[in-house]
Design brief:
The complex is a heterodimer of chains A (271) and B (301). With 271 residues, chain A is mainly α. Chain A folds into two domains: 186 residues, no CATH class; 74 residues. In chain A, strands 1-2 form a two-stranded antiparallel ribbon. In chain A, a hairpin with a 2-residue loop joins strand 1 and strand 2. In chain B, a hairpin with a 2-residue loop joins strand 4 and strand 5. Chain B is globular and about 80 Å long. Chain B is of the alpha/beta class and 301 residues long. Chain B starts with 14 loop residues before the first strand and ends with a helix. Helices cover 43% and strands 21% of the residues of chain B. Chains A and B meet through helix 1, helix 8 and helix 10 of A and helix 4, helix 5, helix 6 and helix 7 of B.
């Protein structure tokens, strides 16, 4: 039986699948196309928005939607640490010397309020996108995602994407098994990397090869049941109703209008 | 050793699949099959036994078209399977792989079981019905909405078997179906194989190195070594041949070991050669009765 992800900070694909397949909240029932459009809209919004408050609002909104879908906040907090650390590692280069009121100084480096706002806005951008992507994946059935991929992408690119997602599961399982074996003999991920980095690099390389081998066995088992390059979903993907389509259209139109007319928060007026 | 006595199948017309002198060598030079001759008939359980690396899994993959013999041929209902028809073999032979995790790839059990029927061209509604029926047949309807990753090994195996039953193949091949299962789940799989045999619709091929299991369910036993069939026959004939089993790297079934310990190795001492636990108990009771009678008669004298 699956033990959970090998690290609390990395999203567990099995848990994502569990919520997507078993959840029954209204967010799960929203049309998958509408959720995908909402993700595109959010990405556009956080890309175009200049106001930190607007970005904070967008992030708060995604958390509200995430929670409304009955998804676990504690896991989200853990899973957010990796993208947050990634952004912070970039910010260590970018935030210094921004125009504004100086807050801190380290030798020649000065952190200003402008730099701090830049850091926060980049962080909100990343977390908003990550949170809503997780919400989409954790509230949309795999068969719907498969159907969307087959409509949006040409064959065999769509199949490569879908099978890559399944390959991700086998890879994480494999690494999870490896770490359990290490921990059972007193080892650990961080300690092992720190003390025997070469050995760990080799072990992780091999675990990817083993995952590939296992994925190939999955592929062979699929072929043994007639798979010839096209996954047929058991359930047809629902089509968005006219109201939902209209709402999505209005949302995109509103966003473009706000950008084109230079509304506050999108480069015009005070942020 | 013959395979006719006591077999449930009576004629060659029941033969579904025939592997005719097939050979297969892997890329690293190791021999998978060597002039292998093998057949499966409707309504029988053929148990393929052999040590690790004897060619059991390779044979099963050939039955399904997953591997192609480099020499020899495979016939289905007497017709040779050419390259084009090889891709259709999956409709005739369903394989339950040794590692159920490799077989269950869909996010839910229902979707996984319906995968084969959808590939057969059934509509989603029909596929759903067939999948539910197959899960019912293995008494696993409760698993229908479960996520495979969160299921036990036994549940996964049942779901994998349902996935094959849903395709309604003529031959069901199970690769080491009870390995790594607890006794309760192993017994469930065993009784399921019996139920499938009673239905008489399928030929069943089961590979294992568990000769206790083989002795309980086999109509016919095939012993493999180095990719070749070295013996074939009734379980009673094969499993009482100690030299053959030693040569194959196998260990006698428990029942045979007990009977051998009771009766010794003398000429004719093995009769009636019990092969199942029930037969062993019966033979021991008969033996005790004879001894008691002899003792009583001796006492009376």
């Amino acid at each position: 039986m699956h033990r959970g992800s090998f690290s609390g900070h990395i999203p567990d694909p099995h848990q994502i699948t569990f919520h997507a397949e078993r959840g029954g909240t209204f967010v799960h029932r929203i049309d998958p196309w509408v959720k995908a459009a909402a993700l595109a809209w959010l990405v556009l919004l956080v890309t175009l928005a200049r106001s930190t408050w607007l970005l904070l609002s967008a992030y708060a909104l995604t958390i509200i939607v995430y929670r409304a879908a009955g998804l676990p906040l504690r896991e989200l907090a853990r899973w957010s640490t990796v993208p947050a650390l990634f952004v912070l590692s970039l910010l260590l280069i970018l935030v210094w010397g921004e125009p504004g009121r100086p807050l801190l100084g380290f030798g020649g480096l000065v952190l200003t309020d402008g730099g701090l706002l830049l850091a926060l806005s980049l962080l909100f951008r990343a977390l908003t996108t990550v949170t809503f992507t997780l919400t989409l994946l954790m509230t949309t059935r795999y068969s719907h995602l498969a159907r969307m991929a087959s409509i949006l992408l040409p064959n065999p690119i769509d199949q490569v994407c879908l099978l890559s997602y399944r390959f991700l599961l086998t890879t994480t399982d494999m690494i999870g098994d490896l770490l359990v074996a290490l921990r059972s003999r007193g080892g650990g991920l961080a300690r092992g990397i720190a003390t025997r980095s070469r050995l760990f690099a080799a072990i992780f390389g091999l675990s990817f090869i083993r995952a590939y081998d296992r994925a190939e066995r999955v592929g062979r088992a699929m072929e043994a049941r007639g798979y010839r390059g096209r996954l047929t979903p058991l359930e047809p993907i629902p089509r968005p109703g006219p109201v939902e389509t209209f709402a999505v259209g209005i949302a995109f139109l509103g966003l473009f209008m706000a950008v084109l007319t230079g509304q506050p928060g999108f480069g015009g007026g005070a942020a | 050793m013959t395979d006719a006595e006591g077999s449930r199948c009576t004629s060659e017309t029941d033969m579904i699949i025939h592997v005719d002198c097939a050979s297969h060598v892997y890329a690293d030079g190791s021999v998978g099959l060597h002039e292998m001759c093998f057949f499966v008939r409707r309504g029988e359980v053929v148990v393929v036994c052999g040590a690790n690396g004897s060619g059991k899994s390779t044979l099963i993959e050939h039955l399904n078209g997953g591997l192609v013999p480099e020499e020899g041929r495979i016939e289905v209902h007497g017709e040779t399977v050419d390259e084009r028809r090889r891709h259709e073999l999956w409709k005739t032979v369903g394989v339950v792989f040794q590692d159920a995790d490799s077989q269950l790839f869909a996010p839910t059990v229902l979707e996984d079981v319906a995968f084969g029927p959808l590939n057969l061209g059934l509509s989603p509604d029909e596929a759903r019905k067939v999948a539910c029926r197959a899960l019912g047949a293995v008494d696993a309807v409760r698993l229908i909405e479960k996520i495979p990753a969160y299921m036990s090994g036994g549940e996964k195996r049942l779901a994998a078997i349902a996935g094959i039953l849903a395709m309604q193949p003529e031959v069901i091949a199970l690769d080491e179906p009870t390995s790594d299962l607890d006794p309760a789940h192993a017994a469930r799989i065993e009784s399921l194989v019996r139920e499938l045999r009673e239905r008489g619709e399928f030929g069943i091929v089961l590979s294992t190195h568990d000769l206790d299991l083989a002795s309980r369910i086999a109509d016919r036993v095939v012993i493999l070594r180095d990719g070749s069939v070295i013996a074939e026959g009734l379980p009673r004939d094969v499993f009482y041949d100690r030299a053959l089993l030693e040569r194959s790297g196998l260990v006698e079934p428990c029942v045979v070991r007990i009977w051998r310990a009771v009766r010794g190795d003398g000429e004719g001492a093995m009769d009636p050669r019990p092969i199942t636990e029930e037969e062993l108990v019966e033979a021991l009771k008969t033996g005790l009765n004879h001894r008691c009678r002899r003792d009583l008669e001796g006492g009376a004298d």
